[in-house]
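Subject: DUF1015 family protein structure
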Amino acid sequence: MDDLAAVTSPPYDLVSREDVRHLLDAHPNNVVRLILPGADQHRYAEARETLTVWLDSGVLVVDDLPSLYVYEQSGPDVLLRGLIGDLALSEPDKGIVLPHENVMPATVADRLALMKTTESNLEPIFLLYDGDGAAASELVDEVASTRTPLLDIRTDDGISHRLWALTDPAELRTVADALYGCRALIADGHHRYATYLALQRDYHSQGRGAGAWDFGLAMLVDSRAYPPDLKAIHRVIPGLPLEEAAARAKGAWRVHEFVRLEEALEALATATGPAFVLGGEGHSHLLTDPDAVQLEHAMPAARSDAWKSLVTSILSEFLLPKVWGLQDDEQTVRIVHHDPYLAVRMAGRESGTAVIVPPLTVENVLAIAAGGERVPRKSTSFGPKPRTGLVLRTFSTN
């Protein structure tokens, strides 16, 4: 086809209903037909039927040789390279693949039904590991710098995607040896990884031995060679007027007023210690220096000091419930990825308050995960995420 980008999509959890229509208008064979089939009870069977038709007709082609894939994303201020392939599954308590977020059972059930029905992993999860100059990263760079890619496309977000297949047994062994003993942090795909494990347990409970379900499709990125972009996730609280939110915060925080949002955001970027910006209709406010006694009393005693120091922990355990009397849940708090200006506009339209949250660091997240804890919901947004539709994995052909 002329434009392979037209059959790809963002990961399933970043695709809205409006996005589905746009993607299908772009091309009838867009992968969104597989990852987000129709809304009725037959949607999983519909996805399986579509996958079967695409395989039989040559829309999708199964590689003849066992392969790993070097995958590159590049654009303005973006360069990320990694490896896509089968990942041997392990439970979190093994300390090999580390989750840092909890999952919602309903979402896992949905992805499990889809994977079981289609017998496929339809999109890779995103993992980070510390390569420390390992041969795998050297090979990734050598391939991306010197070889002709299988595909080279540009998506409508301005990101270029290139893909190479590694089929040489010696190169595959180099990768396997270099990654042996590494542990990986789940950057994106917690629900899909939990689904991989649920699928594995389900198949083993049926008396099936070792098989394709003992692996899951993943992209692994050396975070030392290619640090990911870790962005913040902001909150919008409809119905909590900005001035009321700022006034109530004064009993527990130092509150600094700014005429311009840009000035408040600049101050947030240089603040030391926990800090947030409140925005909406009117002047913006920077919260700093929370009352230490009130803060300590609000934090769960069983949590580690590292967990208690996270700004998202302070938000969910102190600012929202103790200062404003609100719960950090989907009914009360809306989520805005990355864009503080969008969050403030949303808050202004709804006579509410936007809470602009500074991003966590990879080191923060890894420390929490390594200690067996989970960050509060909607704490991290790692990117750039792998594009869906470039590499799929079906069990029936393994």
